[in-house]
Amino acid sequence: MREGFAPRAMTQALGPLLGGLSLVLALGFVLARVRGLGAREADVLNGLVVDVTMPALLFAVLARDGMDWGAARVLPWSAMALLASLGVGAAVARAFGLDARAIGSAGIVASFSNTGFLGLPLLLTLFPGDAAASSAAMMIDLVITTILLWTLGQAYAERFGRGAAFDARAALRTFRKPLVLAVPLGALAHALHLPIPPFLLTTMEGLGRTTTYLVFLSLGLSLDVRALSGRVAPAIAICAVKLLFAPAVALLCVRVFSVSDPLATVAVLQAAMPSALASVIIVALTGCDRPLAAAVCTLASLASMATLPLVAWIVEVTRP
């Protein structure tokens, strides 16, 4: 165990933090009903997160702490959890007798986690100033979620959706987004010791730490429980794959291969995050079952408020 790492403090901090995020989500839900806000405002917040707050957070953290490349050793086990969950999610959809479009949706939302908008800011709060933890969280988000979702995930969804050919050119455009460019730019700034004014880094990091709250406010604004209509049983089963099976696979991998903390904890918690919001976009683009994906994403985001502390506790009690 790394010196200064306090896993029990992590679990104690996780509950109140998630409780606060639940209140933000409820605020968004109330605003949608009382003030008539909705999908349009949610899209504005999502755009702000993708193009401003998350890139600012990534750049500030990397420019200050740099990238611990040794954290890359968690990537195979994160990928294992993702691939296993994709297969099991699809199997669950088949067991419920759902069609091919729904099977494609189930595999995507059961496997790809909200490692960026929720996982990364959450883990940076739980492990402040820990370069290994922040590097692991960023690598998992960049490689396992972002790159694999827009390549492997999109190709998988295309197979079960309209059957269109995989658009490699569109996938490559992912690498031009501020969210992706912030990682090499921040790491380069640290490696070259560029004289970035401290107030600028502080401002960018402060701006970036609003990400999680903006995401949950957006989720509350766009929350549509009607998406669960007629899909309750399969949605619950797919959520169980995402929130319980995926972190269980990650936990088994990091324990069997003796991955040290905080890397082990980061890998398991990232796998335990609810379905990635971008997974619904992939499902819609490829002609898969969007209502099912939206239902699972909504339910998983709500249920994760309870399952994340449970997973964190299991990580603690299974620690060697």
TrEMBL record:
Database matches in Gene3D superfamilies: 1.20.1530.20
GO BP terms: transmembrane transport
Annotated compartments: Cell membrane
Gene Ontology cellular-component terms listed: plasma membrane
Membrane-spanning intervals of the chain: 12-32, 44-63, 75-96, 103-124, 136-157, 178-200, 206-223, 235-257, 263-285, 292-315
Record's bilayer topology term: Multi-pass membrane protein
Principal location class: membrane
Top-level division of the source organism's lineage: Bacteria
Keyword presence, Transmembrane helix: yes
Pfam families recorded: Mem_trans (PF03547)
UniProt entry keywords in alphabetical sequence: Cell membrane, Membrane, Transmembrane, Transmembrane helix, Transport
Family: Belongs to the auxin efflux carrier (TC 2.A.69) family.
Protein name: AEC family transporter
